[in-house]
Design goal:
Layout lengths: L1 H16 L12 E6 L13 E6 L10 E4 L20 E3 L6 E7 L16 E7 L5 E8 L8 E6 L4 E6 L5 E4 L7 E2 L8 E5 L2 E6 L1 H7 L4 E6 L15 E7 L7 E6 L5 E6 L3 E8 L2 E8 L15 E7 L6 E6 L11 E6 L7 E6 L6 E7 L12
Antiparallel strand pairs: 1-2, 1-24, 2-3, 4-5, 5-6, 6-7, 8-9, 9-10, 10-11, 12-13, 13-14, 14-15, 16-17, 17-18, 18-19, 20-21, 21-22, 22-23
Length: 377
Amino acid sequence: MERIVLAAIALAASGLTSAAQETHFLPKHLAVLRAGDGQVDLHLKQAPVFIDQFASDRFNDSPSFTVKIATNGPETLFFNGHAATEGILTRSADHRLLAVAGYGGVSLLQSNGVPSQLDIDRGFCTVDAAGIVRTKMYKRHPGEQKMNPRGIVTDGTNNFWGCGNAFGTFYCNASEQAEPLEFASIPNSRALRIVNGMLYVTLNGPDANVSGLPAGILSFEDGHGNAAPLPQSGESTLKSLVAAVPSYSKIAGFDLDPAGTMAYTADTMAGIQKYVKTNSAWKFAYNFSIPQTIDKEKNHATGCFGLVVDFSGKAPVIYATTTEGYGGCVNSNRVVRIVDTNATATVTTLAQAPSASMAYRGIEFTPEKLSLNTASK
């Protein structure tokens, strides 16, 4: 396996760009956030960023469309491809925009060191169906405390919510606020998404310990015990929705069905967990372990990071990015698919990162075109 991966490194750049490319995102495909171009070592902790499009029903030799996020100039945005927590990808509530959080204000590798500790801007970008990237820097960080921007989500207008550590969970109106409004009682959060007009986040074990809450999926309240579907107050707090089974608390990505009766979480060591709501109580159903393609003694991890689920059919279809890799970090990993018919459902590989200098991180469905009746951002 190692020989295959090393051979793929030399082909990585051409392998991801030589196939015939679309000129925009296609509907009902997968959008996968990629750290690395096959040349920059992920251990440098500042990776060029791409969003790759893959078909959701078959193995993909290469992406059919790729958006490259600028690594220099005013639209610069990158994240730490070596970090275990960065690289969440989301789709807006109206399905028009993908969103990514990271660092900017400087060109890639202009500042050496771990970016979460550097005096550089925190920012985010949105990407529409045509592949147009719009970037905003939202916070200057003095470097006194390590702060990882992990993800960002929008309702489709100028309202954004971010997740991260060191009080990196916040609300921001991109057209009205110079600085984000931090949620003072929420020091850490892992991933977030909007489902049916409600914002949810995940906490893993250490996050939960700091917050005094159980690990799992949580919703927001206004600080006075009232539900806050899309919180905009600094007094906002979290309320546990789906408490994770303790053995599956290394959580990153997640998804919920529109009816609010089924949930999935991605554990970075264990795989994908399913929870179901019965008689008003959430119960653990089962875990999908991920078959590994890297020898145990060389492998970084055995779970999943990014997660999105298609709930439209008779059986939910789960899509996720794995956490395997060489050299102590995620790389050479995969996009996988599970049709959830039962606890023994097959895990199928849809795409394989062709290089130890590439890692698939967040995953979402592709953005949809702007309708004539929808106002532009």
